[in-house]
Structures
1.
Amino acid sequence: MSHPFVWVPGGGVRHASGDVVPLPGVEFPEGVVVSTLCGVEVSAETGEVAWLWGTCRDCDERTRELVGLELLAEIERRAGAEVRS
Ligand SMILES: [Zn+2]
């Protein structure tokens, strides 16, 4: 089963997007403007280095919510670590 979002590197961060990836549907082509789950628009970037960028915190939380994983905020609260990025 696929999830209703896809990860997309853009602007130096790895975001998640609910936009439909054009066929063959592996990743957004370079330069395509994509709406992210955290509410910004980024120009999609490709390549190995781009995929190694850090994950957008807001997109991480939204995707956790969508797939039913525990939120980072919950995990941090339980661990007693108030991490602010
Ligand atoms: Zn984001």
2.
Amino acid sequence: MIATLEAPTTAPACAYAQPATGVPAPSTEGFVHSVETCGTVDGPGVRYVLFLHGCPLRCQYCHNPDAQGKPSGATKTAEDAFADVLKYKSFIRKGGLTISGGEPLLQADFVHAMFRMAKENGLHTTLDTSGFVGHKASDELLDETDLVLLDIKSFSPMTHKMVTGVCVDQTLKFAKRLDARGNKVWIRFVLVPGLTDSEKNIDGLAEFVSTLGNVDRVEILPFHKMGEGKYRRSGLPYKLGNTPTPTDGEVQRARDIFARHGVETFV
Ligand code: SF4
């Protein structure tokens, strides 16, 4: 007798953690935080950068503390948000569309709908993420993603927790998944004196990155206090008020550690 397989009648308990499948409709709504129409640092070329609201992390140096928490505020359909992107098509033809945040993967369906329309219009797509909820990115979404800017805030689990409030495991898992799929990645690492700059931390990160075959570029971002004013205005505590920006020598030291593992870096 040949056994027949029956579909389970109830979803497995971990179903919420599985990536969505299928293609979301253009009417999918997203919580948009803000827009930068001529961005030059979040991916190659001149880019339309869409910042989404909501982030589960609490990075001590976050520039957008007002984008943290659950996605909230005004919503837009992907169709409406993309109509605005199209107004700048001639400027971003050689760059593209970047979706950042906040954490864009909290609204993975919205990102997917946007990227699908971008690809249909011949635009390059970049996803800027901490990778903490990388499991929410479906393979179909990653197929529409030309580049992932993956922020690895720290390699040391303890430091990562201190800097962001969450553990680093999901980010590293997402990095390996992207490698296995062959998604092109730029790694970004913020160098914060006295916080993320220990030899052990940088060495661990450099060694990890050297094992990945899909990394096109590694950027070391020297810590700066551009976001401090936002904290003051919103009455939020800013923990890094006494932290200096790294000196040229400290940045070079970090670059040298990466170089020891054969990893070229950019600042
Ligand atoms: S991941 Fe980005 S948006 Fe979220 S808290 Fe960190 S710096 Fe801010």
